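REQUEST ID: PR-0412
SUBMITTED BY: lab tech R.K.
PRIORITY: routine
TASK: structure prediction, single protein chain
INPUT:
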Amino acid sequence: MHFWNCIPLVALGAALALTPVQAADEDTTRALTALKAVTKEGKGNEDAGPAWKTLVSKGGAAIIPALEAFDDDNATAANWLRTAVDAIAENEIAAGRKLPADKLEAFVKDTKRAATARRAAYEILVAQDADAKGRLLPGFLNDKSADLRRDAITNQLDILEKLARPTIKADLEKLFTFTRDKDQVELVAKKIEGNGGNVSVSEQLGFVTFAALVGPFDNTEGKGFAVAYPPEAATNISATFKGKGGAELKWANAVPTEKSAAFDLNTLLTKHKDAVAYARAVVVAEKEMPGEVRVTCATAVQIFLNGKKLFQREEYHHGTPFDGHTGRGVLLKGENVIVLKVCQNNQTEQWAQAWQFQMRVCDSTGGPLPLEQKITMKDKTQTHKLGFLSPEAEKKEEKK
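STATUS: complete
OUTPUT:
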């Protein structure tokens, strides 16, 4: 159990306020080293409690060093540091002392710092400076921090609605380019539509809207997850394979079954249990660039890019968070082949029948990349902007 969870903040704050504060930077450094060493496996917890107490006892002088120690790749350590930063801030406020606003603001603006630390610094700054929000948020519309960018977009929407100026459609269209979170993308798109405009949610999110599918392969007792079936290394979609029960399988072109770019495998391949299916998509990049393949899926998945496995997670029916699976890699100049392996188990509950996926390609912030998708329909190959909804997909949506 975390030391933070064992002691009420008010009582602890009062106790720490009575602790003599010595100007010993080495103590702060040692405390931060101990807290940064904590891992999710519980390693370092024994030293973290005393280190946390030492750090908080240093007061306002420790706030910036503590923020600098954050690491977004170590969520457990960041949690300890965040609670320490919050405790320091509360103690300083209770004592009538202000934290260094200039240093906090400079820290918030420094995009090289951990996103979680910048968010913490922003909240502390806003709590003691009523003007900070209006001053800072306009600069965060395209920020690397998802939280700061989200607040900035919400703030800008409020401003536009209050102004109600004639150019609101153009203003909303510009704001739309900064959106990343699915709900905000859809919200701003709806407002644009209400003002006579039209934008593509699918293109902004970079959804894969065309794929070649093949399956099912055997996943009895979950063994198929570790089996590298031939489609994982397929160089084209003309090959045939032996699938589950010896069935002859061929790649079949498919478009999403929903405008949200979801591919329902129960519909496209017919319902199967203890099964493995593959989806293959080709995206074209104008130059080499880093990218992320993000997948929303309730079942076990593996993500491959140009033959290299970027990600895998063997988990079934534990929720379907948007972008729940992320593979990070490098898109090469020209054609890039993305292969998604989607497994299904044999659970019989009604809620465990879902077998589908939604896949998108984006930058590290979730924003669109300058990519096209290669689409083959009726023996004709074309390229369209990634996220393009084919006439077939549009027709399916109209029938719903």
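NOTES: The chain has a mean pLDDT of 91.
REVIEWED BY: pending
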